[in-house]
Automatic annotation (TrEMBL):
GO terms for molecular function: DNA binding; DNA-binding transcription factor activity. InterPro entries: Cro/C1-type_HTH, Cupin_2, Lambda_DNA-bd_dom_sf, RmlC-like_jellyroll, RmlC_Cupin_sf, TransReg_Diox_bact_type. Gene3D superfamilies: Jelly Rolls, lambda repressor-like DNA-binding domains. This is HTH-type transcriptional regulator PuuR. Keywords: DNA-binding. It comes from the Bacteria. GO terms for cellular component: cytosol. Signal peptide: none annotated. Residues 25-79 form the HTH cro/C1-type domain. It comes from Roseisalinus antarcticus.
């Protein structure tokens, strides 16, 4: 079982986000009539970890959020506080609430377009941080454009080093993990689709 959380010492704003995420996961799980054990089986995460997340006592990785949302038949942005609407033509960066996952990975969901099955986010990876501790898989397809820095993207057990200006794409069903192997910040535009 992968390690699904990092050390907890969140700021007040981060703790509020963690609490909201946990509450939404619990509500969505109950709306689907699922037990914690059923969600654990569907997501591949432990019941104890999911219980901590639901109570706001643990901060899940971005990869874990994607997997949990998929197991609930939802998108990750359904778990987050986002003000972007499908009808918005322009989304201002300053209007998007950044979410910090364990390990100092910051994710800003710029657009969640459910009608077209696309989620677009700007992700920032501090030096020596990763999307999750080990490779995870979920439904969909991903496209990542590296704006600044250098990243290693593991896909199906193979490591790919990408540099600023490079694009990587792969089926999200293949186990994958993104990590910053350098001493510099890395910034990406990441597009997730619900293509099966």
């Amino acid at each position: 079982m992968p390690s699904e959380m990092g050390p907890l010492q969140p700021s007040a704003a981060a703790q509020k986000t963690i609490t909201v995420i946990g509450k939404r996961i619990r509500e969505m799980r109950k709306d689907k009539g699922m037990t914690l054990s059923q969600l654990a089986e569907a997501s591949g995460l432990s019941s104890s970890m999911l219980s901590l997340v639901e109570r706001g006592l643990a901060s899940p990785s971005i990869g874990s959020l994607i997997v949990v949302a998929g197991a609930l038949g939802r998108s990750m942005s359904d778990l987050l506080e986002t003000e972007s609407h499908e009808s918005d033509i322009v989304v201002r960066s300053g209007d998007v609430t950044p979410v910090q996952a364990p390990g100092e990975v910051i994710r800003r969901v710029m657009k969640e377009d459910r009608a077209n099955g696309v989620s677009i986010a700007v992700n920032e990876y501090a030096p020596h941080t990763s999307s999750n501790e080990s490779a995870l898989s979920h439904e969909g397809y991903e496209y990542g454009l590296l704006l600044d820095g250098s990243l290693t993207v593991e896909v199906g057990g193979e490591a790919h080093v990408i540099e600023a200006g490079d694009l990587i794409s792969y089926s999200s069903r293949r186990p994958h993990r993104i990590y910053n192997h350098t001493d510099r910040m890395a910034r990406t535009v990441w597009v997730n689709t619900d293509r099966r």
